[in-house]
From TrEMBL:
GO terms for cellular component: cell division site; plasma membrane. This is Cell division protein FtsQ. Its main location: membrane. The chain crosses the membrane at residues 20-40. It comes from Shewanella insulae. The gene is ftsQ. GO terms for biological process: cell septum assembly; FtsZ-dependent cytokinesis. Essential cell division protein. May link together the upstream cell division proteins, which are predominantly cytoplasmic, with the downstream cell division proteins, which are predominantly periplasmic. May control correct divisome assembly. Residues 52-121 form the POTRA domain.
Length: 254
């Protein structure tokens, strides 16, 4: 094939090319490249803590047991991120991991602030000597804080915390309207109840009819206090009667 024929063939092929389509595809390719480059640069900027730092964290909510120092420590690593790359769910979890925080809600506020609302645990009782119970009957661990006040001691199997709290409220209310304060309520592994009053008297209530048995103690107590010896414990696990244990040691000390 001669050079003339070869050139003529190429000319024919070039005339058949749709140059509008080619230039259109090239333009589209350049646009995609430009958008990709712009997106990559935008990603770098949004994740650059120096360019878009979190400048402030506004904490709202009543706090009695959670200090600013504890919050700063919990958020120390997360605050090194940019305003847009900071994960509000991680911030929320870090705050809720603090021992006295019950719930935290977090949201971004333009241009560089996180707004946090905290709800603290409200302790209503000591649980199994080492833990606490909140108003919902949930067990939580937290260090002792000043200002908590005098709380009852509740004891029971780990999965019975809510039930023990409910029963404490029922028994305590009945005793309180009759002039007694309930300081401790225990549920044994065999589901027997033991109540301890603020004056130290123990009430063995057994597994059934505990409210009726508490009422029986209330009725008979005026007679018991007339006796020469102080009452130490009252066994109410009988259908119609009760057994009284006297405080011999206290009587001898007198």
């Amino acid at each position: 094939m001669s050079l003339r024929e070869l050139g003529s063939g190429w000319k024919t092929r070039l005339e058949q090319v749709d140059w509008y389509l080619c230039f259109g595809l090239i333009f589209l390719f350049l646009v995609i490249c430009g958008l990709s480059m712009g997106g990559w640069k935008l990603h770098l900027v949004l994740n650059d803590a120096d360019a878009l730092p979190i400048e402030a964290v506004a904490i709202k909510g009543d706090r009695q047991f959670t200090s600013d120092a504890e919050i700063r420590t919990a958020l120390q690593d997360l605050m090194q991120r940019s305003f847009f790359s900071a994960d509000v769910n991680q911030v929320q979890q870090a705050l809720e991991d603090l021992p006295w925080v019950y719930h935290a809600s977090v949201r971004r506020e333009w241009p560089a602030k996180l707004k946090v609302y905290l709800v603290e645990q409200t302790p209503v009782a000591h649980w199994n000597e080492t833990d606490w119970l909140n108003e919902q009957g949930q067990v939580f661990k937290a260090p002792l804080r000043e200002g908590i006040g005098q709380l009852p001691n509740l004891v029971g199997p780990e999965d019975q915390a809510k039930s023990v709290l409910t029963n404490y409220r029922q028994v305590s209310e009945l005793l309180k309207i009759n002039g007694f304060d309930l300081a401790r309520l225990e549920l044994s592994p065999r589901h027997a109840w033991l109540a301890v009053l603020a004056n130290g008297i123990e009430l063995k209530l057994g597994r059934e009819d505990k409210m009726a048995r508490v009422q029986r103690f209330i009725h008979v107590y005026p007679t018991l206090v007339k006796q020469a010896k102080p009452v130490a414990r009252v066994d109410l696990r009988y259908d119609t009667g009760l057994a009284v244990g006297w405080d011999e040691a206290q009587d001898e000390s007198r």
